[in-house]
């Protein structure tokens, strides 16, 4: 498994003042993810085109993409993975 912190970007690709964790799976976890844990795959091409059009027109993406909130973590996990308190 690999854990890294990635910079976040807004709808106009501007840097945001926080990072998000990216967790990479390997080995048995990948097999389970592919064969057992994945319940469905949804084609979001039309939504991506709608978001792109909204960004290009300046209309904004509110209501098109989910609102992201920090996930609450216990203090020991915050320290272990090097997260910032929310």
> Taking Cα atoms only, what radius of gyration do you get, to the nearest Å?
17 Å
Order of helices and strands: EEHHH
How would a crystallographer describe the biggest sheet? 2 strands, antiparallel
Shape: flat
The helix/strand class is: alpha+beta
Alpha plus pi helix count: 3
User: Strands across the major sheet, in which order?
Assistant: 1-2
Helix percentage range: 25-40%
Describe what this molecule looks like in 3D.
The chain is of the alpha+beta class. The chain has one domain (2-81). The chain contains three helices and two strands; from the N terminus they run ββααα. The protein starts with a strand and ends in a 5-residue tail after the last helix.
Quick rundown:
This protein has helices at residues 28-37, 45-57, 75-81; strands spanning 2-9, 15-24.
Layout: helices, strands, pairs:
Elements: E1 2-9, E2 15-24, H1 28-37, H2 45-57, H3 75-81
Antiparallel strand pairs: 1-2
Structural key phrases:
86 residues; alpha+beta; 3 helices; 35% helix; 21% strand
């Amino acid at each position: 498994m690999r854990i890294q912190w990635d910079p976040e970007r807004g709808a106009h690709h501007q840097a945001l003042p926080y990072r998000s964790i990216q967790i990479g799976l390997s080995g048995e976890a990948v097999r389970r993810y592919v064969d057992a844990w994945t319940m469905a795959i949804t084609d979001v091409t039309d939504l991506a085109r709608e978001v792109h059009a909204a960004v290009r027109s300046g209309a904004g993406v509110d209501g098109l993409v989910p609102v992201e909130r920090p996930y609450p973590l216990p203090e020991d996990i915050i320290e272990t993975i090097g997260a910032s308190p929310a």
